[in-house]
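Task: complex structure prediction.
Instruction: return structure tokens for all chains below.
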Amino acid sequence: MGLLLLVAVVSGVVLYAPFTRKLAFGTVRYERSRRVRWLDLHNLLGIVTLVWLLVVGATGVINTWADLLLKVWQKTELAELTAPYAGLPLVTALGSMQQVIDKARQTEPGMEVRYVAFPGTKFATPHHYIVFMQGTTPLTSRLQKPILVDAQTGNVTASVDLPWYIVALRVSQPLHFGDYGGQALKLLWALLDIATIVLLITGLYLWIKLGKEKASKPAEVRAEEAA
Amino acid sequence: MMHVFGPIWTAPVVLGVLTLVGLVSALLGDGVWDAVSALTLGAVVAVGGWYGLRRPAPPQVRRTKR
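Output:
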């Protein structure tokens, strides 16, 4: 769906020039028919939200790969790190939780604990806690650093730098959800969302109208007529 | 305004650059970075709101300047 959105946006951009060639930027011809009015409005909102919509769409597509990327990392890098543990019996007596967190803090003193994944769960390994550390600045707080702690001994097995594709995923997430930059950005996000909804409705309207017109004339002719 | 990208594409390119600056800025830091973000993205939204919501005054023919 995300890819279809991107295709729709790009096709809209291609049509932007022929439909606005003879107009000053942002002109909405209210004195004309509804179709022309909505066409102008569609062009205006489309070009205003263009880059935002592309970024939100593309990062949304990346986001759908989140589970996949996690699995890739687990199957490759993480599997290598935990290779010595393969085949060992499952841990029954877990070490001290406090010790796990203390050890993680000592390993990365400049970072904060974000969360701890228990052994055997989705984000950990069968034999390790994984303590996910995060930085303290807006950017580094997105970039987590997993620390593998042996579940039995409570000793740190490894402190890992996440691969580039997980970093890319983590940085792209706020760009999709807009959950950063404070209240002002959230408000603007909402307004851009509304603009997108109007863009969608005007676009659908124009498309349905076009279908009724039986597309007897090529797009350039219609563009000329509209302009 | 200079029309480096021609009369059609100058405004869209400016809006696009403002959007990118706004989106990235708040990602990099708080405080001033957030403010830059709010201003640039705010300008983009304001342009959309201004042209989208304004109604023409009396019924005079508003054709293009060029």
